[in-house]
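User: what does the whole thing look like in 3D?
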Amino acid sequence: MSEVEKGVKDLKVKEQKARAEKMKAEGKFALKTPKGTKDFGSSQMVVREKVLGIMTEIFKKHGAEAIDTPVFELKEVLMGKYGEEGGKLVYDLADQGGEACSLRYDLTVPFARYVAMNKLANLKRYHIAKVYRRDNPVMTKGRFREFYQCDFDIAGQYDSMLPDAECLKIADEVLSTLDLGEFEIRLNHRALLEGIFALSGIDTKDFKTVCSSVDKLDKVPWETVRDELVNEKKIPADAVNHLEKYVRARELASNPTNEDLLKIFETFENDRVKVAVNELRLLLEYCELYGCNKRVVFEPSLARGLDYYTGVIYEVIVKEFSFVPKNANPENPEENCSVGSVAAGGRYDTLVGMFSASAGKKRTDIPCVGISFGIERLFSIMEMKHKSEETGLRTNATDVLVASAQKGLLKERMKIARILWDANIRTELPYKANPKLLNQLQYAEERIIPWVVLLGEQELNNGLVKIRNVKTREETEVKIDDLVEELKKRLS
Amino acid sequence: MSEVEKGVKDLKVKEQKARAEKMKAEGKFALKTPKGTKDFGSSQMVVREKVLGIMTEIFKKHGAEAIDTPVFELKEVLMGKYGEEGGKLVYDLADQGGEACSLRYDLTVPFARYVAMNKLANLKRYHIAKVYRRDNPVMTKGRFREFYQCDFDIAGQYDSMLPDAECLKIADEVLSTLDLGEFEIRLNHRALLEGIFALSGIDTKDFKTVCSSVDKLDKVPWETVRDELVNEKKIPADAVNHLEKYVRARELASNPTNEDLLKIFETFENDRVKVAVNELRLLLEYCELYGCNKRVVFEPSLARGLDYYTGVIYEVIVKEFSFVPKNANPENPEENCSVGSVAAGGRYDTLVGMFSASAGKKRTDIPCVGISFGIERLFSIMEMKHKSEETGLRTNATDVLVASAQKGLLKERMKIARILWDANIRTELPYKANPKLLNQLQYAEERIIPWVVLLGEQELNNGLVKIRNVKTREETEVKIDDLVEELKKRLS
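Assistant: Here's the predicted 3D structure for the full assembly of 984 residues, as structure tokens:
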């Protein structure tokens, strides 16, 4: 930045501050939503409801039940569940007397609290709700402070990998049905990471911090990760060199199959690795039976951040869109195509037990596995898709506008509207005593309302009204007594 | 309370405190949701989704669009909108750096902020979301600190009483469709209250405090209200005596019609009263055209608490249930029947303008009218109704359980489940390698799953499976190739 640019920027910041202070002094304030949050207008709501409808239908198809929990939890419930970084991002409620509470950070911890509190032995549930993180928002990239999560989880003591396979099947169904583009389900196992870290000679106490570096491998080259591990985190270079061969196994082999990689790892002399290889192999076999194996990729570098995972972990990424985004930047195809992770999850067998134990009761572990969809990203992609297809999205569901061809006739219009409403036909009428015909027809066209019922005094005297097809402008006279039937015929 | 009772109570409180402190010292805590909040289990969610589905369908039938706003707003947005009492009940977020924010208290103020911020000239929207009040919760009576509101509002400059009439029509449709019992829509006008207060000689500055006393008339006798006004609030006895004749007009006349009462008030020499009478008469006429006039009762004592109303105000009360509640208390029929207000609303023509003005812009008033449904009460009544009818409520939507008649056959079951899922048939299979047949059939019965697909080795060898009707226990052999078609036939 040049001196002049810097000067201009400083002046602007100063001006902005002065304006804010002046407004405050006058008891005024900016009309906006809080930082990192946004309103959903009706055209966004239509997309949102479409996406959520598809997901809900798939969850129900797999026998899941819905539950809901409060937006805020007791502070103790959330503490110590999200690692050092995550913990800092939790929103607290002000101390206004009473219990210390925090806004929920995800839906998994409230789910585990719910299972423990109600002493449930098993539960297959979905939960669609907003969560809160005091993160640095990047609104254009779909990173918000208030955002939706959409979770499917299975709690219960079951035979190995059966619920896990169903979670991957669901991920496959959701992404296939949304039809947003090519996707990949990346798969790894917490025990595999533990095993190869141990084999590399990495100290157990460094597990989390090494994980968080390794997890960056899908975004930055190995050299950057290596540098961070050796120079910043002071992991011995020897250990890091060992680790490289393991976590980059897929990259370093020439186009290996999942089984090729598993064959490499199964030779390792480490019990944790053996557990992981057996479970991953079984899971991949089940995925084949469920017809969702083609998109599953065993990726030894996948690490994931959260503390509570104990078994398989996975993440779904959209690799390429099924459409050409409007306003795509031809200079930078990466930017247009890559949205990264749209869902993630894994097995967490000890979280419910942590809650029963911290409540001072006998510890009861209920194994759990689940998947959480990053709905905001799916919304964004779906919105881009709709824009690229330039299909007019309806924000209302109105089927009929009751209009009058001449001045007045308000009461007659109201009577007709009543008949249609009482027959469950989606109907609007202008809130004007004397609306102009042109304005009414324009309203119907703008709102993409397919039919207009048109009233005229002469027709009314003969017990008739006109039905007008907004698209073709064709008009048909019908008896008022037959109006409901005639409209239902056209709407079915 | 006797001395002994008091002693026992004190001891209990002491014991409870000691227990809490001991748990805290051990790093333990009670497994619960915060005070005034609750989880929704799957059987409650089913009721909730049913009620919300009915309401959403009615809102859409009237051409409304959905919007959503953040759970928290800038503190300034909420300040000064809910009167002295309401303002104290707003939840604040902790100061963790950044803007001062509060949890939304209702959906009306965020709606007005949204209209002003987006400079909309009109909007007909519905919004279903949770709101937050630090009130004293009474969980058994459906008074929570976190609860749903379900709002329908019309913003825009329209001809008199047309949007208002549609709000009452919607209230009538919602309550009729839910079929919970006899209900009444009580109606009044802010200008009528202003007029009769002035005619009684009550000072303008006392308007709000007198309103809040008068509003209690549906719960306590006039003598109590009078006592509060004269002795506590120091309103001159003369003025209160005058006021009585007006606010008790319905009570004191012998079974008057709405028009009878309007005829009394229209003789009053007061401009505000005249405005109110004209608007109420027009509204009642429109309600007749919409076929919802029979439940509308003009009630001069209805006052409502919130500051922002400027025109008609109304409230919907359920007077008598359509069913006999289970565990009804025969000693106290009142308790079983009366749930009071389930919806309320009115006209607020200046709220949007307040926002455009406080944002330092030119004040633009957008007249608004709306209705807010107290969904928690409607949920409670609906739950009571379901319990009284003892109809088994399904919490899942599963149509088919894939079971095996003998040990093993896991992979075969998985293949069949995959076929059904891919054909969009709602299917579950037990997460067990060797489930017992009896347990599987019991699971289907408990979960009210209507069909079981039963696998046996011999049938499989011939390309066959059995379809079992869970209710009749009838079994039919079908070819695996025909299974989807056969099931779809049974499910349609």
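In plain terms: Confidence is low (pLDDT under 50) at residues 332-337 of chain A. The longest strand of chain A covers residues 123-132.
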